[in-house]
Amino acid sequence: MATEQPAVEAIALTRRYRAGGQRVSGLDHVSLTAARGEVVAVMGPSGSGKSTLLYLLAGLDDPDDGCALITGVDWRSVRGRARDRLRLHACGFIPQGMSLLPQATAAENVEVPLLVGGVGRTERRDRTAEILDRVGLSDSAAKLPDQLSGGQQQRIAIARALVSRPAVVLADEPTGSLDSATAEVVTRLLVGAATEQHAAVVLVTHDPSVAQLADRVVNLHSGHLDPAALEDDRSGGTN
Q1: pLDDT recorded at residue 83
Q2: Residues 199, 36: contact at Cβ < 8 Å?
Q3: Which residue stretches of 63-149 are H helix?
Q4: Per-residue pLDDT at 116
Q5: Between β-strands 22-34 and 73-74, what pairing exists: parallel, antiparallel or unpaired?
Q6: CA distance readout (Å), 119 to 28, 89, 110, 111, 196
Q7: CB under 8 Å to 38, separation ≥6 — which residues?
Q8: Percent helix, strand and coil across the chain, each to the nearest 5
Q9: Who wins on pLDDT, 237 or 197?
């Protein structure tokens, strides 16, 4: 029986940067897959390449070697507006800091991907209301970001990433500034996205309690994937 194609895949990804006149590796031949319905947590110390990996998987940066694929499409094969369209429809991205529009309401922030994607007004409003209800913020739809708590703002960022029903959700330290109770709520929302929307979720975290809610955990150290995690990835096992 044919194996389902990974929703997101890194193949020998390498990214180098200049620092102090020298070329240093942010990532060195990192390979990773995530299937639809699976949550993969990426852990490692600061500077290990976690965010670099996420930006390459999202097509927001280009590798020096190797490739990243989303829903089977190699990011190297799409450029400009075609790349933007692919990201818009296939990938929900949650950056550090959330990047909410300060003068837009919670509902308007969530609507942005649908508006950019040309979704009609009625469907846009219905889908926004549905996702706000799922993240428990229906009663905050008209509030501005500065009227919301940090946890509420993070839930708005998650709702924005999920509203397009993407195949892949990429989250960069989604609980980094939250207390432990709120962090668990936010993580369970992401885990729920994998189940309910059959999305692949790749989340970067420093928090072991967040990682333990994932189906699989991989570890990066100095731009290298832990060999044990790589073998586990190939075999389809879990940590």
Answers
A1: 94
A2: yes
A3: 80-90, 106-116, 121-134
A4: 92
A5: unpaired
A6: 40, 11, 13, 9, 21
A7: 194, 200, 201, 215, 216
A8: 40, 25, 35
A9: 197
Asked if residue 138 lies in contact with residue 61, where contact means CB atoms within 8 angstroms, the answer is no
Which backbone phi and psi does 91 adopt, to 5 degrees? -135, 120
Distance of alpha carbon 54 from alpha carbon 205, whole angstroms: 11
Q: What is the pLDDT of residues 153-167, one digit of tens each?
A: 989 999 999 999 999
pLDDT of residue 66: 96
* 28 close to 189: Cβ distance less than 8 angstroms: no
3-state secondary structure 108-125: HHHHHHHHHCCCCHHHHH
Q: How confident is the model at residue 1 (pLDDT cuts 50, 70, 90)?
A: very low
Per-residue b or e along 155-166, where b marks 16 or more CB atoms closer than 10 Å to that residue's CB: bbbbbbbbbbeb
Q: Which of 83, 85, 65, 84 is nearest to 75 (CA)?
A: 83
Global pTM? Answer: 0.88
Distance between CA atoms of 237 and 239, rounded to whole angstroms? 7
Joined together, the tokens standing for residue 8 give: 């997101």
Nearest to 213 by CA among 177, 165, 167, 180: 180
59 closest CA partner among 99, 90, 98: 90
Flag whether pLDDT at 239 surpasses 90. Answer: no
pLDDT given for residue 228 in this prediction: 53
Pairing of strands 39-43, 200-204: parallel
How far CA 61 is from CA of 124, 185, 216, 227, in Å, comes to: 29, 30, 25, 25
